[in-house]
Amino acid sequence: MKRSISLIVALLCCGSLLMSCSDPAAGNESTTGKDEASTNQTTGPENETDPAASITLDTNTADIPIGGYVDPAVTVSADGTDQKLLWATDNAAVAVVDDSGRIIGKGEGQCVITACLESDPKVAASITVNVTNPTSADGLTYINGILIVNKTYALPSTYSPDVDSEANTALAKMFQAAKADGISLTIVSGYRSYERQNTLYNNYVARDGVEAADTYSARAGHSEHQTGLAFDLNSLEESFGETKEGIWLREHCWEYGFIIRYPKGKEDITGYMYEPWHVRYLGKSTAKSVFESGLCLEEYLNVTSVYAQ
Ligand SMILES: [Zn+2]
User: Fold this and answer.
1) How far apart are CA 247 and CA 145, in angstroms?
2) Residues with CB under 5 A from ligand 1 (ion)
3) Separation of 128 CA from ligand 1 center, angstroms?
């Protein structure tokens, strides 16, 4: 509540001064970030009161998908470093921005996001954001070529591909390699239809309530198991992550094209509790790249995982 009030205050404050915040003539020519040391101020000549303060963003345009985000890097001149920044959007239906400056795509279109100093809103910089719809007509969402299913992005109820054959072959190879290392891996669950997920989720809600169920079970259409590319292995207990099987899986699954989809410490980002047993097939090169990045898939693709309601 406190946070939402301060955000509203911030929006009102910045919004009421939107003319000076978003007016390109007020400065902000230098937003390429190539010349951090330059004296290209965001303050215009009419702004003699505080000529030393300036804000620079590392880019002046961004293209993001609906549900995707960008965190523009902000450079505040020495005079303004201890100043609070206020962020505002000129069209919340297209993109919103939070207190930290993270810009999140909401709907197709273009809008302008502005950062200004709380103490002097005339000191401002802005970024033009183009938001596109990443979901194709068939209802599938690919970001950078990766089929993404999470709380933000759903699959159509009619999508029922069954287990992906390439993922299944890769899984068999992984099981063989594990066995050679003295590790026994078994499938607990693989492909799950929309209807099956609907039943499961509703049962969990009846037992634990929506809030709790949402931390460990996906709503119908939002389960990765419906892609045919995800598998639960061995044991659905968090302690599985500390068994020799769980450790082997975490260290080696990328070699066969899989990632641990819901890693420990990323719960707020993936939207799910740590699931050391749930692997998602991405193919070898992408899985290697995600593994080496140390990021969860949402961070790797710069996308959110939040239900619309
Ligand atoms: Zn799973």
Assistant:
1) 29
2) 232, 278
3) 38
Q: In what order do the strands lie in the sheet with 69-70?
A: 69-70, 103-105, 95-97
CA of 293 to the centre of ligand 1 (A): 22
Place of tokens 């799950």: 192
Is 181 exposed, middle or buried, given 0-12, 13-18 or 19+ CB atoms closer than 10 A? exposed
pLDDT tens profile 227-261: 999 999 999 999 999 999 999 999 999 999 999 99
pTM above 0.90, yes or no: no
Active-site position among 255, 275, 292, 298: 275
Mean pLDDT computed over 185-214: 97
Distance 246 CA to ligand 1 centre (A): 14
The question of whether 275 is a catalytic residue gets the answer yes
CB 272 within 8 A of CB 204: no
